[in-house]
Specification:
With about 325 residues, this protein is an alpha/beta fold. It has 2 domains: about 240 residues, Aldolase class I (TIM Barrel, Alpha-Beta Barrel), CATH 3.20.20.70; about 70 residues. Helix content is about 45%, strand content about 15%. The chain contains 15 helices and 9 strands. Strands 1-2-4-5-6-7-8-9 form an 8-stranded parallel beta barrel, surrounded by 6 helices. Helix 6 packs parallel to helix 7 and helix 14 packs antiparallel against helix 15. The longest helix has 19 residues. The protein is globular. The two termini are about 25 Å apart.
Length: about 325
């Protein structure tokens, strides 16, 4: 049974993933989507570098050219990732203009070719993240045909966001709520296909996630893991009987991490602390915590100067879950 944190643009960078790993030793973490073209032409260390404690961590690729994706997958493999995931679920216009993301659900043969090409160039698992359908297409017909076609290319794991992607007429933000989620359809896919299916979409509590694990091979958290990060600790305790790290230990680990990142890469403190803003939840002192980690962190050099006062503002040493 797998708990994972979804790839989220501008959020799940290497600093966010290091932080999430402190909260959950067991969750599978994903990178932000990185386009194959960026990897082939850009600064690979900046785009793909990560920290060993992040394992297991999956590289999510964007693209629709089989040869480019194959080369990018091979490069990702050399960097030490634990798997490669192809984005067939993002509905943004920018992604559509690049001819990848959710629009690829209308081209299952092309996606199959991409998967086959990647599998030839890496021994890592190659998986696909998709929606249940797009626009006015019949969701059941589109989803089942898409999965069947891509599975024939050797993909045995699909992360399915249980909501249609609406490519025209809705913003990505609106598409998070409309149209409605259809968990039953994804459950039918799981039962009919015999494939490994991980459910994504609308999972907001630990209880939600545990309930879905009865029907699916995994549950992928999105914004809930970012805005309520204690959910990761709660799930680790429920599923693995693991004791959550106290808040002071998490803060101390992040101080050491931030100082090392500044020394090695010149990383500004706020690039790291921005991912920690929601850690105390609704605890007394959380407002002061947020101010320190967002405003004061912009001018601070040393992590301890911000994080120790922030820790003092909330209940020191208390677990984030009861």
């Amino acid at each position: 049974m797998e708990i994972s944190v979804a790839p989220m643009m501008d959020w799940t960078d290497r600093h966010c993933r290091y932080f999430h790993r402190l909260l959950s030793p067991s969750a599978v973490l994903y990178t932000e989507m990185v386009t194959a073209q960026a990897i082939l032409r850009g600064d690979r260390q900046r785009l793909l570098g990560f920290n060993a404690p992040e394992h297991p961590v999956i590289l999510q690729l964007g693209g629709s050219e089989p040869d480019d994706l194959a080369e990018a997958a091979a490069i990702g493999s050399d960097f030490g990732y634990d798997g490669i995931n192809l984005n067939c679920g993002c509905p943004s216009e920018r992604v559509q203009k690049g001819a990848f993301g959710a629009c690829l659900m209308a081209e299952p043969e092309l996606v199959a070719a991409c998967v086959a090409a990647m599998k030839k160039c890496t021994s890592l698992p190659v998986t696909v993240k998709c929606r249940i359908g797009i626009d006015d297409h019949d969701a059941r017909q589109m989803l089942f045909q898409f999965v069947q076609t891509v599975a024939q290319a050797g993909c045995d794991t699909f992360v399915v966001h249980a909501r249609k992607a609406w490519l025209k007429g809705l913003s990505p933000k609106e598409n998070r709520e409309v149209p409605p989620l259809d968990y039953d359809l994804v459950r039918d896919l799981k039962q009919a296909s015999g494939l490994r299916i991980i459910l994504n979409g609308g999972i907001t509590t630990a209880e939600d996630a545990v309930g879905h694990l009865r029907a699916f091979d995994g549950a992928m958290l999105g914004r809930s893991a970012y805005h309520s990060p204690a959910i990761l600790q709660a799930l680790h305790r429920i599923l693995h009987k693991g004791e959550p790290k106290p808040l002071d230990q998490i803060v101390e680990a992040m101080i050491q991490y931030a100082d090392q990142q500044r020394a090695d890469h010149g990383t500004p403190l706020h690039a790291i602390t921005r991912h920690m803003v929601h850690l105390p939840g609704g605890k007394r002192g959380a407002r002061r915590w947020r101010q320190l980690l967002t405003v004061d962190a912009l001018a601070a050099v040393h992590a301890r100067d911000v994080l120790i006062p922030a820790l003092a503002a909330v209940s020191q040493g208390q677990e984030l879950v009861s």
